[in-house]
Amino acid sequence: MKAKPAAAPRPSRTRARARTTSIAAFVVLAALVPTTASASGTQQVEAELPYVCTLPSGPLPATVRVSAEFPERALAGEAFTPSGVTTTVELPDQAVADLAARDAAGVRAATRLGVGVAQNAATATATWRGSAEPVALPESGPLTLVTKGDVPSVAGRGDGDLTFSAGALAIDLALEAAADGTATDAATAGPGSLTVDCALAEDAPGRGLLATVPVGTGTAAPSGSPSSPSPSGPAGTSGAPDDGRPDGPGDREAERQSERSPKVLENTPGTAADRDEVPPCRYDEQHPPTDVSLNAYVTGYANVKKMRGAAYLPPSCVLIEQGIPVPGPPDPDYLIFDTVSYANFHYQERRQTPPFEATFLSFDFAPVKATMVLEQTDTMRIDSRMKMSMTDFSTTTDTYVRAPLVLHVLDLEVNGTPLDVGSECRTETSLTSEDPDPANFPGDHLVLYGRGELLIGQPATGYLLLSGGVLSGEATIPAFTGCGTDGEDLDRLLTASVSGPGNLIKQVQGQTCAIAAPVFPSPTNEGQCTEDLQPYEIPVAEH
Q: Comparing C-alpha atoms, which of 305, 300, 264, 266 is closest to residue 472?
């Protein structure tokens, strides 16, 4: 715990109690929210669009609702990320019959929505990914799937309206059998999976328009004109080396069009240049590596629903022991392997994150600062299932991280004055999530989920244990205990202000460093390890 400044002379106990209560009344969990957590000037988007989805029985109508928050305006070159993105797909009852015919009793959905981003005459495409908790097939009526997930940042290149329009939608369905399980042979060992492709209906209002964000000072650039100089040369020139051959008209126009296109940012992780800002992440004598040892940095944000904000979790070191893949359940369409790995936070020989501070201006004038850590109560477990298609050899990998973590509040300060919470102020149990397999994974723990995809000849996308990516989940914050000193019990106040369900968490893991076979940066390789075998990549948190 940090040392506190010398206390001022103590007023009478009655006055002290009144002062503590008045401070705590507007402070306590506001301290979990950084000043940048809440953005002003946002527009809420709610779009309902007709789609046509292709299922085994044929094309069927579907309704897709997209909700998100966009800024009311942005500056040219300023990147922003739509927040609170939710995709709700309503499939008709015939789709339910199709899935039931494949012996499915429930589904877990992941969505990939193509979003066209346009500014003036230039365009770009972003992929909005989402995942959902398992749902049972309804006995009658439509099937509703609600997914939330990753959205890349976008930046306009110049002045002019930036528009976002929904396009093609793919729904990956992991089909879940009935609990009693009636499979009798390899061909019927499970209902498997299904990808449903959906196209925007021709009569969709506004051709799928979701939102319009004005960019710049308010005067749009003329259609077709360059929005800004090229990063590598004056406007109208190419930054590519001159090979002595004149460009054709089509090449020059394509190049100019590319320079004008809105920029879709996939939130690239940081580099080793940030190393002095993060704690060390290496194995040592107390934690010697094995042949399957990995290390990586993770960072992210955790929403505090009651406070309408998010707490920033700084880059933290994780030591991972990668498991050996074993054959999964047989499937006639896929080759399946399951891998179980284990991990621990590593900070000053403790299984916890580094202490992190969050600051909040309560009532817009009273600065509040909290210092906290997340502490493990047991080893984290990482379950990954890789499925390779037997037709095109594409692979998908679903990963679940189960982490028993308590939130420990170390210090609170209000306008520079400590509010003493004591040394044992923490949640009673681990942060908890609804586990998709509670029978095999009982107990209190946080669950984070990520999906990775790999197509032949293309870079991997999404989350994979080795290369990292985004993991997300939803947590319930338990009641607090042990908070307060000198007879001041702050447990109930913290619990009332903070505890509860529906707190979204988004974590970004960087590329791992494989200790037994390190990859160092070179002209032909991207770095995975530093010379002293720390992770080379330091990820950047995403809202």
A: 300
Which neighbouring-strand residues pair with 193?
A: 174
**DSSP code at position 466:** T
Cα distance between residue 81 and residue 427, in whole Å: 31
Nearest CA to 501 out of 479, 483, 482 is that of 479
Structure tokens at 515: 């200790």
Residue written as token pair 């002290």: 16
Distances (CA, A) of 375 to 289, 352, 380, 416, 433: 22, 4, 11, 26, 16
CA–CA separation, 82 and 127 (whole Å) = 12
* Per-residue burial over 12-35, b = 16 or more CB atoms within 10 Å of its CB, e = otherwise: eeeeeeeebeebbeebbbbbbbbe
| CA dist 456 → 393, 461, 465 (Å) | 7, 12, 19
Note the pLDDT tens digit of each residue in 383-429.
Answer: 999 999 998 899 999 999 999 999 998 887 756 777 788 989 999 99
In the DSSP assignment, the letter for residue 464 is B
Amino acid 494 reads L
Query: What's the pLDDT tens digit per position in 70-117?
Result: 999 988 877 788 888 999 999 999 999 999 988 888 898 889 899 999
Kindly state the DSSP code that residue 494 receives in the 8-state scheme. Answer: H
The number of angstroms, rounded, from the C-alpha of 52 to the middle of its chain's C-alpha atoms is 29
240's CB contacts (< 8 A; 6+ apart) are none
CA distances (Å), origin 239, targets 230, 234, 249, 435, 436: 7, 9, 17, 51, 51
pTM for this entry: 0.58
Find all residues with CB under 8 Å of 249, minimum gap 6, and list them: none
Q: Is the dihedral of CA 92, 94, 97, 98 positive or negative?
A: negative
Cα–Cα distance for residue pair 451/441, rounded to 1 Å? 20
- Specify the pLDDT at position 218: 53
CA distance between the termini of the chain: 29
Burial profile 351-363: b = 16 or more Cβ within 10 angstroms, e = fewer: bbbbebbbbbebe
DSSP 323-340: PPPEE-S-BTTEEEEEEE
- Determine the 3-state secondary structure of 521 from DSSP: coil
Beta bridge partners of 378: none
Backbone angles phi, psi at 21, to 5 degrees: -65, -40
List of long-range contacts for 434-441, beta carbons under 8 Å, 24+ apart: 434/133, 434/474, 435/402, 436/108, 436/133, 436/134, 436/400, 441/381, 441/402
Task: Return the closest-CA partner of residue 70 out of 46, 105, 103, 35.
Answer: 46
Q: Is the dihedral of CA 15, 21, 23, 26 positive or negative?
A: negative
